[in-house]
Amino acid sequence: MADSKLPAEEIAQGRRTFQRVIRGIYEGKIEEDALYGALPDFREPSDDDQNKANANVRLASTNAAEEISADDLRESIARLRVMADNAKIPDEPFQLDIGDEFKKAVDKALAGKG
Q1: Residue 1 within a domain
Q2: Which residues form the domain of 22?
Q3: pTM value > 0.90
Q4: Are 22 and 96 in contact (CB under 8 A)?
Q5: Which of 32, 40, 104, 111 is the 20 to 30 Å CA partner of 63?
Q6: Quick one: which of 33, 18, 36, 39 has its CA closest to 89?
Q7: 64 domain-assigned
Q8: What DSSP assignment string belongs to 56-69?
Q9: Torsion over CA of 36, 38, 42 and 45, rounded to 10 degrees?
Q10: In this predicted model, what pLDDT tens digit does every residue of 41-73 receive, in sequence order?
Q11: In 27-63, which ranges are continuous DSSP H helix?
């Protein structure tokens, strides 16, 4: 988003919106597929069923700033904002600690083996 040519305030709001949606997914209030459905389509149209399953997946090496217009980005952020609002996700910072979550999962799995 930083290379999107959007004003700094819109970039900050967009990041917060993504944080809210990620929190919604983490809390089970938003389906992961809904996130991908709200993002712009990054692939070339194809009738190949395998490509349809990966409709919103692209190689990390592609230059997203050249591929996504500011209007497309704004539209996606608006869809995500509605999604987060409908799921009643608070408009506050959220950062998932992957290491902590992994430790919780391991501890839970080990507790079940006792």
Answers
A1: no
A2: 8-111
A3: no
A4: yes
A5: 32
A6: 18
A7: yes
A8: T---TTS-HHHHS-
A9: 100
A10: 655 455 554 554 554 444 444 554 456 788 888
A11: 32-38, 49-53
